[in-house]
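Hi D.,

Good news: the full-assembly prediction came through. Inputs first.
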Amino acid sequence: MKDTLWLIRKTFLSTFKKPMNLLLYFVFPVLGILLATLIHSGSGDTELRMGIVNQDGGRQITQGVIDAVGRMDSMLVSEIEENEVKDLIASGELDAAIILPAGFAQSLIDGNPSDLKIISIKGAQVTGQLKAYLEQHINNLASVGRVAQGNEVKFKTLYENYQKNGFELATEKIDDQSINHNKTNQTIGYLLILMLVSASSLSGILIKERENRTYYRLLSSPVNARTYVLSNVIVNLTMMMLQIAVTLWIMITIFHVDPGIPYWSMFFILVLFALVAISLSLAIVAFSSSSSAASGMQNLLLIPTSLLAGCMFPLALMPAAMQQIAHFLPQYWLLDTFSHLQQGVSMGELSLNLIILIVFAVALSLIAIYKFGRNNDTRSYI
Amino acid sequence: MNVLEVKQLTKKFGDFIAVDNITMSVKEGEIFGFLGANGAGKSTAINMIASLLRVTKGEIEVLGKNIAKHGKFAKMNIGIVPQEMAIYEDMTTYENVYFFAGLYGLRGAELKERVIEALAFVGLGDKHKSYPKNFSGGMKRRLNIACAIAHRPKLLIMDEPTVGIDPQSRNYILGSVKKLNEMGCTIIYTSHYMEEVEEICTRIAIIDHGKIIAEGTKGQLKAIITNQKNIGIEVRSAENLDRSKLAGIAGVNQVKVEDRIIKITSDSEINNLNRIIQQLMADDIEIRSVEEHEPSLETVFLTLTGRSLRD
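Then the structure:
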């Protein structure tokens, strides 16, 4: 035990001595949160800027339609001229424009509404809700027109009654948690990549020690190889627990991101993933003959698998075949667990996900131990 | 008392036998030279003695205890100076020795005292806060030694400790080896430099193709390989030399003349030097000096193994 503590002490001192390590463990994850926040900063409530070209003059019915559009949530309406439409939309000053044609009011009175134009370069994302709303409103007015049978006086009476008796729609706004969840998932995705890199960096010490022969000297002392590897694993796990704790704390407290999952649940699940990351890094070390070989293997494994598992962008954006491949990656199971927890699924119901993470850790550890044990030279670890 | 006892030690890597049934012992207080060309099995044997490599067959005892059962005890009493530098470049000299000595269970004031002592011993007493990356090859070698001796091992294994360093550092290290030995440390010393081995080792073993082919003191080794002596006679002029008469003297096997030096190879058991000198005087040759050479350790090694130590 004294030997283990002595080795742990040395590894900690060496680790904290290098500023690059501190960047990797603590600063980069915060940059990940910052990046996730920036990426999702535009996805909150925004006002839709709508230009309306009224070619129908000052008709009360036409003005009523314009007012109805203005009453829509998050809608900023301005009246513009037809020749301004293209420029204002192209420059981004307007999101869309509606052209109410001449004779529009009369067409409603006649019960046969003429077509109006909606112009936008942003497509259905912007026009969908507006189109649905206008369709309903205009159809209602056309129905009034058909009842009035083209009689303008009768139409006005019916129209005023329609406006007075208009049903009230009580709305209650609920917080859109999707943005917070997206930020959390994006941050966790980056954190997973950094955890994999951090674990590889710390396990890489084993190869460096072998290369600079200090491992030879260590093993010629009363310390045995198992103690040596164990001390590295303890330091690795401790560093990653610190990394997880600090990242989550900063995400919640400083960036005010509500992940929708209790802090300690997230911490516990991420620690399980830390074990996977450490096991994977040990397996890489076991199969590498040099630091450059290990580095090559890391590049080949860590980033592509993280991409495939959805650490950098949502898995739903990928083709179905790729989504199937993700099921073989531990990162996927962690992100899947988080996603279900955010949707209100209980931890107990996700026990299979957690077991899969544990199985990944155990399997990778066994591979590393087997490979270490096969090395029949002074550089073997176990 | 034997500090090290090796019995029928064998190491196989697959079908390849790196160390083949070697038996040897190192007595307390000896500086034991371990000679062998690259690939002879020297490092494999040393690694097994240091418990760094599993033994295929045989037994190793350190201070009377079998290392298979008392591995920790053996390691506590052995210090290793590896051929390649085994130090942390990003730690100061003090931190390096402090860390490695700590692996032997030393702590607190005792540890600090040992570190200071070891660094002073190798002449780095004023370099506690220096980083090895700024050191010369010789200074790094000395730090390499300090890391191995701070825990005061009973047996110190030094594997080529003077490779690639300046003569001043080499002399310092050789002096340190002798001093350590005087202080009671038994040493196993391997080197490519025969003159070093000749200078400091009290007993030598030669290993070749995994087997110990000779073991003994320098004199005993030389006696094994040769019954000849080399005589070199420097003369004013060798013009009048009658080689046939010289070669006819009992025991003389070969006569060669290089510049003004007459080189004679003769049976070592026949004392014929007076006859040779008389013959030269009879030929009216003025003698300036006479030297009788013993074969060098290099010659011994070459004769026994058929290859140079650097092969």
